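[Meeting: bench + compute handoff]

Bench side (C.D.) handed over the final construct sequence. Compute side (W.E.) agreed to return the predicted structure before the next meeting so the bench team could plan truncations. Sequence as handed over:
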Amino acid sequence: MRNYELMYIIRPDFDEEKVAEVIEKYNNLIANNGGEVVTADKWGKRRLAYEIKDFHEGIYVLVNFNGVPDTSREIDRVMKISDDVIRFMIINKDK
């Protein structure tokens, strides 16, 4: 298993309940695709460096997880088509 770091930014117009649902959704996605969530830290609402999809703020979430390459590919695929997330980045920490 490889170590990965996932940073994603959730839309700022969601309430706390919806944000918790989105975080749980992606944690379950990792677990259901052969991965294991090590830590999931919600950093809260922060100002973006530049406007993304008409938003000036976003709710940042940092997740460290272990998984196989298929795990990160599936997360990438789902986040690209999701309206919940405005930006994301997956990093392989082993390299």
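W.E. noted at the follow-up: The helical segments are 16-32, 69-81. C.D. will use this when planning the next construct.
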